[in-house]
Amino acid sequence: MSIIKNILTVCIPLLPHSIGIFLLIGADRFIITKILGLSTISSYLVILQISTVFVFIFDAINKGYYPWLFDKLNENNNDTKKKIIITTYIYFILLLCASVFLFFHGSKLITLIAGENYIINNNIVGLIFLGQIFGGMYLMVNNYLFYEKEMLLLSKITISSGIIHLTLISVLSYYWGITGAAFSFCFSKCIQFLLTWFNAYKIANMPWLIQDG
Prior knowledge:
globular
């Protein structure tokens, strides 16, 4: 009975988290289709689809990373924790450097993959891919909330980010078209990452400023 109770304690608070994920990566398509029309947003949807390669890569990395991380956190060794944080920051820097490349060459990459019919502004490609990169960075910090069993807090962050995304995309896509939609996606993923990092900073006993601990 206690096992069932523990499972429910973990799973039930994550239900809103799943809704928030849908708001971030699914519901926006209905809104921009209504505002811009399917023919106008076809390029946006193609970029979004191609960018999900990052999602699979980040998810695979995280599936291998978080069991190791939890073991190290259980050891409660300050030197190990400091190495984890330094490695995490290096990982963040590498991902952001990759995003800079996409702002300059993203359109060529999409054309290479999807064909000559999709010649798109580099900034649009860069914003969408940067949003996915923020998603990868988010996975590195949300593990601490899982470790601390803060599932309800995680759900609140995801729901809030999803609502921000839907609000922004409703307004910005009306005025800026798919550029506004791409910015909304990127901004909301950034907010999700920053809010999660901020709460992990407050809750998890880690040397976030490196010199701590």
